Give the backbone structure.
Amino acid sequence: MKVLVTARLPEEVLGRITRCHQVQIHGEDLPMKRQTLLESVAEVDGLLCTITDRIDRELLDRAPRLKIIANNGVGFDHIDLEEADVRAIWVTNTPGVLTRATADLTFALILASARRVVEGDRMVRAGGFTFWAPLKFLGTEVSGKTLGIVGMGRIGRAVAKRAAGFEMRVLYGGRSRLAPEAERELNVSFASFDDLLSESDFVSLHVPLGPQTRHLIGARELSKMKPSAVLINTARGPVVDEKALVEALRSGSIGAAGLDVFENEPQLCPGLADLDNVVLLPHMGSATIETRTRMAEMACENLLAGLAGKRPPNCINR
Ligand code: 8YV
């Protein structure tokens, strides 16, 4: 069958697909151009894609033979699931394997933002470390503080486990409440959204992007946070109203932010990069060799199952 793989993946993984199917690979690191993508799907039976490919009705209309869309990632807000359902196309993702890596990076951002790690690095490189003084480069302590986790799914829970090592008090909010045993085991307390915002020293976002979570954090929510609070986003950029965030960081209405994702990725909201109290990363939550390899393997297994007419292991269609 014909397969389109829209990004470079580990050779061993690609080999498993090329052994049994006719594969077109977009072998560059730059994402596929929209027009090229639209033209390349005309005859494909299987598509292995990433977050940079918009899989919408226009694309699906051009891919009449498509049987499976295997996404190389867990979030699938770039795929029109309803349109795929209508056409009986399997859609799959890669849950679980990136939980630890993303939770680790969340903590990297918490620590970097609170302790001004990137600012310090920039100063040393620029030759600015000319003396030590007791009141220079003071950040805010992480240990013992309150962490508010918005969205207690797999990644939110993994972040809570790491917070225990820092002896943090953990509040959480979101659509659903954990069972009492799970709350006890993780040592977390359910809070209303507004209480979480006003009581937390760190607010970390772990919700998927959808109509209910777009701009979940806007001017109103930022104004509820402590002036010293740090906002962390390793979920999806549009969960935060970036313009309102720049304003809050500029005016001191919150203390700092650590962002791995952006509202209009890869573009940055004007003013964001001029601020010292923000750490900016290029959407690298799952970017470890181990995790990215496992994600590619999973996407490949899903793809091969779908092409063989079997329900893929990580199918997200209704
Ligand atoms: C991926 C992510 O790197 O899995 C996700 O949802 O955001 C990242 O871990 C990205 O989606 C690759 O397609």
Remarks:
- Residues 289-307 form the longest helix (19 residues).
